[in-house]
């Protein structure tokens, strides 16, 4: 499974990096109506992913939603050589989530923290 996923994950030098990440995703939520969803804007993510993680846990969101958010945080990182280590760290977290060595919550939180810390340091 890891090799299959690796084919779909962006590589730092690849053209169109993160081009498959949507600008928003709809997270299905339990409610009165069958097709209720909460829209998450992936281009304006919060510095602290706690609220998103809580939503995903409460709604038993599929791993693909968690991973999409982790990739969206990676997408926020500037595409400059200094950020290659951040992108590599996020890639490692995604790999660990896929093989079950890290929970999706922990991996997504680590990815978000790495990006937000880097963005604060570069200001």
List the helices and strands and how they pair.
Elements: H1 2-8, E1 24-28, E2 37-41, H2 50-58, H3 63-76, H4 84-99, H5 104-122
Antiparallel strand pairs: 1-2
Helix pairs in contact: 3-4, 3-5, 4-5
Which terms would index this structure?
mainly alpha, 123 residues, two-stranded antiparallel sheet, disordered N terminus
How does this model look, in words?
- The protein is mainly α and 123 residues long.
- It has helices spanning 2-8, 50-58, 63-76, 84-99, 104-122; strands spanning 24-28, 37-41.
- The chain has one domain (31-122).
- The longest helix is centred in the last third of the chain and has 19 residues, at 104-122.
- The relative contact order is 0.17.
- It has a two-stranded antiparallel sheet with strand order 1-2.
- Helix 3 (63-76) packs parallel to helix 5 (104-122) and helix 4 packs antiparallel against helix 5.
- It has 5 helices and 2 strands, in the order H-E-E-H-H-H-H.
| Radius of gyration, taken over Cα atoms and rounded to an integer in Å | 14 Å
Round the mean pLDDT to the nearest integer and report it.
76
Q: Please state the oligomeric state of the protein chains shown.
A: single chain
Q: List low-pLDDT spans.
A: 1-15
Helix fraction bin: 40-55%
Based on Cα principal axes, name the global outline: globular
Strand content: 5-15%
Strand order of the largest sheet: 1-2
Sketch the major β-sheet. Answer: 2 strands, antiparallel
Overview in brief:
By secondary structure, this protein is mainly α. The chain has one domain. It contains five helices and two strands.
């Amino acid at each position: 499974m890891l090799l299959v996923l690796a084919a779909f994950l962006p590589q730092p030098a690849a053209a169109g990096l993160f081009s498959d990440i949507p600008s928003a995703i709809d997270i299905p939520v339990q409610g009165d109506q069958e097709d209720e969803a909460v829209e998450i804007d992936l281009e304006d993510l919060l510095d602290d992913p706690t609220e998103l993680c809580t939503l995903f846990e409460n709604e038993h969101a599929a791993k693909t939603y968690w991973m999409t958010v982790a990739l969206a945080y990676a997408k926020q990182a500037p595409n400059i050589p200094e950020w290659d280590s951040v992108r590599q760290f996020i890639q490692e977290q995604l790999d660990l989530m896929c093989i079950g060595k890290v929970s999706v919550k922990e991996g997504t939180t680590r990815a978000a923290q790495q990006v937000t810390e880097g963005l604060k340091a570069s200001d």
